[in-house]
């Protein structure tokens, strides 16, 4: 094992010399933001790559989430999952919306569509679901419920770059899908994000909202925000697009290697991703009661070896102090989410991860 710390993820970066021509064009144009040439080009090429019709680039995924809710004029209560990164529910609070947490399916780790209907009240306006670990939600059932109760559907697709389900890109489901291009994601622009919409009218409103609600020099129509992606981030995104297919192929090889090593270990459950096309964003394992030691003891053993596995997501959103008052009625109805959060470990996974390091990681599990 190398002396250097092994992180749970490592961002792919293209050769620096290939980025230099982009920087020279930015310096020459002096156009750093506000929809410059790289922003326009990246938006078009990214939409084509992902198989979506309308895409709006953002400075990050969190601002995209906040803006998506504003663009749909969501109010009241929104049904969502407790098993996610806090940005999902924070976006609701920023819009003064009450999150209503529903338990997850313990197999997929996504919101359990069968439990959504019981949480709907006259104040419910939308469902905010997460494609956890890039594993597609039950999109057909969620849409059926939304149609029956006249609800909007927003998908936090931060984990789902390039993922396809039974009918094509997972990003085409719901009213809006939100992406993150943070440094920890499969596809990164250092910082960045996007909203996927279905029609030009929706995209136009979203683009106005991410630019302070400005229509023109003399007209402001909404309380928008500064959510624009810079030319620097758009340029790195364009360059990353030429490498992303190869990056995902490398991640697939690592995923298969882990599965071959760990699939028969007693007390270790692997996630079965039901996507038709996967992106191998994470490699979560679940340490059950049959394993010789607890999840947290195993976590400590990894830490002692300078291997940064992550208990992702632990604790639940509903366990943070700021959410406890909001979730007192639901806390006893989240048994699956609570149980999974006490089992989860995400192992290191990135395209340049070497096999010798993977063997060291697997042996720490196998030797217990």
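^ Assign residues to that structure.
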């Amino acid at each position: 094992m190398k002396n250097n710390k092994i992180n749970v993820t490592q961002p792919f970066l293209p050769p620096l010399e290939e980025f230099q021509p982009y920087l020279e064009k930015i310096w020459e144009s002096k156009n750093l933001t506000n929809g410059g040439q790289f922003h326009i080009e990246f938006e078009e090429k990214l939409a084509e790559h992902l198989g979506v019709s309308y895409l709006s680039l953002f400075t990050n995924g969190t601002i995209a989430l906040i803006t998506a809710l504003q663009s749909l004029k969501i109010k009241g209560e929104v049904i969502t999952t407790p098993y996610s990164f806090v940005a999902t529910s924070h976006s609701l609070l920023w819009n003064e919306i009450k999150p209503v947490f529903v338990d997850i399916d313990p197999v997929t780790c996504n919101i359990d569509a069968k439990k959504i209907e019981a949480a709907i009240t006259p104040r419910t306006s939308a469902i905010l679901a997460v494609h956890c670990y890039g594993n597609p939600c039950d999109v057909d059932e969620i849409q059926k419920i939304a149609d029956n109760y006249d609800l909007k559907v927003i998908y936090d697709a931060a984990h789902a770059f390039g993922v396809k389900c039974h009918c094509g890109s997972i990003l085409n489901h719901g009213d809006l899908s939100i992406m993150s291009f943070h440094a920890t994601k499969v596809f990164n622009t250092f910082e960045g994000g996007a909203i996927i919409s279905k029609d030009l009218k929706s995209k136009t409103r979203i683009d106005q909202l991410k630019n302070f609600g400005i229509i023109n020099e003399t007209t402001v129509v909404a309380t928008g925000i500064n959510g624009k992606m810079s030319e620097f981030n758009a340029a790195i995104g364009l360059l990353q697009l030429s490498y992303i297919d190869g990056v995902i192929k490398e991640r697939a090889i690592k995923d298969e290697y882990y599965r071959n090593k760990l699939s028969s270990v007693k007390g270790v459950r692997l996630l079965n991703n039901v996507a038709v096309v996967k992106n191998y964003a994470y490699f979560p394992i679940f340490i059950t009661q049959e394993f010789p030691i607890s999840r947290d003891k195993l976590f400590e053993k990894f830490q002692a070896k300078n291997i940064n596995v992550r208990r992702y997501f632990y604790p639940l959103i509903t366990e943070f102090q700021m959410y406890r008052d909001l979730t007192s009625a639901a806390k006893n109805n989240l048994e699956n989410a609570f149980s999974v959060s006490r089992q989860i470990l995400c192992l290191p996974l990135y395209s340049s991860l070497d096999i010798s390091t993977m063997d060291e990681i697997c042996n720490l599990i196998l030797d217990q």
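The mean pLDDT is 96.
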